[in-house]
């Protein structure tokens, strides 16, 4: 027996067995990971229902509110899994943040934005998509909002599973529209508002991509393509950081602090200008110290953009939590109000316990399911470095400010992903331009074959087509799903 144990063939067999066990262990962990996420999500949904039971009391329609709270929690989980990736993806893709660091920052700032500056009133439900009075009775209105909430959550869940970042706002809008049509006919829908939302499918990504490309062109022409890159960076990086600080100050003043102070556009722009100038002055000596001893190459420039990129990701998360939490809890708050008072035609106040469900749901969804979309947005559309990711973050803030000023309905998801595409397509155009310029200087230089030129594309066309298709069908898909759910509810409750 001792001789057999010392046999090299026996040791090889033992190694193979151990390899099999380690492979089995890895496979088991891969299978168990999604099960853990699903299990934690179910526990959170149940806790949301218990919270509704605790706060709503023992009224005759408490069960309806409990079910609605569970659906609101499910929607919040999906917003965290899908929507928050747009803020954190560029920073992770540029290696300015680790996945764990990005999730931690997003959880803190999303929750803070939702709880500190989250909107306390949803004016006409779902931004005036339907006329509530057309529903007839409070019961029909409640069933319509339940259908809209469930349909929007299911659609965002499907999009996350496929790997497509979609607008959760548009998902809710589609859900409300579909349920409204099913409950009260096509006349109940404000088609002018729907036309403006459809226009935003084009406006949002084009604006976001254009602004991001312009800033990347500025960085390339004024810093990257200069002989003394570090000297140029000392001049331009403080200016760029000042622009970023001023833009975010105006953005947060206008979009994130409505609950605390009523601020109009001119006031927000003045606040942004003051903050921008102050940050520019402060950053001049900071960047000078940071740049001491750096080599005159592109890799050194990444150091100077790292901290501004992390700060911008945190601020975007705060603003997102302040604004988009209403997508999860707006219909839930409407159901709570209609169930309590029977009034469903006035503006809807969001109770604090409902806001907590939205804030914690977004955080849990990001933590459990967010990494997939973060990786996709940050690294699978086009390759990002800190300079490119900085352009994406700055574009998101500037585009929202400009759109608010012009009164255009835009999607933060479409803006951020459009900015990533804008950066990638600008890189393609810039690379082609430089190749042509080099070919003019060196006519004998060999040309790339068509296959090689296609391989060198800097934006993945498959992701581009998948995302665009998901954007286009989000509203109609959520509407059809919501209408079907509404008919099913009325059939069951009949």
Automatic annotation (TrEMBL):
<feature type="transmembrane region" description="Helical">
    <location>
        <begin position="412"/>
        <end position="429"/>
    </location>
</feature>
<keyword id="KW-0813">Transport</keyword>
<feature type="transmembrane region" description="Helical">
    <location>
        <begin position="231"/>
        <end position="254"/>
    </location>
</feature>
<feature type="transmembrane region" description="Helical">
    <location>
        <begin position="92"/>
        <end position="117"/>
    </location>
</feature>
<feature type="transmembrane region" description="Helical">
    <location>
        <begin position="172"/>
        <end position="192"/>
    </location>
</feature>
<feature type="transmembrane region" description="Helical">
    <location>
        <begin position="350"/>
        <end position="369"/>
    </location>
</feature>
<keyword id="KW-0592">Phosphate transport</keyword>
<dbReference type="GO" id="GO:0035435">
    <property type="term" value="P:phosphate ion transmembrane transport"/>
</dbReference>
<keyword id="KW-0472">Membrane</keyword>
<feature type="transmembrane region" description="Helical">
    <location>
        <begin position="464"/>
        <end position="489"/>
    </location>
</feature>
<keyword id="KW-0812">Transmembrane</keyword>
<feature type="transmembrane region" description="Helical">
    <location>
        <begin position="303"/>
        <end position="322"/>
    </location>
</feature>
<comment type="similarity">
    <text>Belongs to the inorganic phosphate transporter (PiT) (TC 2.A.20) family.</text>
</comment>
<feature type="transmembrane region" description="Helical">
    <location>
        <begin position="198"/>
        <end position="219"/>
    </location>
</feature>
<dbReference type="InterPro" id="IPR001204">
    <property type="entry name" value="Phos_transporter"/>
</dbReference>
<feature type="transmembrane region" description="Helical">
    <location>
        <begin position="62"/>
        <end position="80"/>
    </location>
</feature>
<feature type="transmembrane region" description="Helical">
    <location>
        <begin position="140"/>
        <end position="160"/>
    </location>
</feature>
<feature type="transmembrane region" description="Helical">
    <location>
        <begin position="389"/>
        <end position="406"/>
    </location>
</feature>
<dbReference type="GO" id="GO:0016020">
    <property type="term" value="C:membrane"/>
</dbReference>
<protein>
    <recommendedName>
        <fullName>Phosphate transporter</fullName>
    </recommendedName>
</protein>
<dbReference type="Pfam" id="PF01384">
    <property type="entry name" value="PHO4"/>
</dbReference>
<dbReference type="GO" id="GO:0005315">
    <property type="term" value="F:phosphate transmembrane transporter activity"/>
</dbReference>
<keyword id="KW-1133">Transmembrane helix</keyword>
<feature type="transmembrane region" description="Helical">
    <location>
        <begin position="35"/>
        <end position="56"/>
    </location>
</feature>
<feature type="transmembrane region" description="Helical">
    <location>
        <begin position="260"/>
        <end position="282"/>
    </location>
</feature>
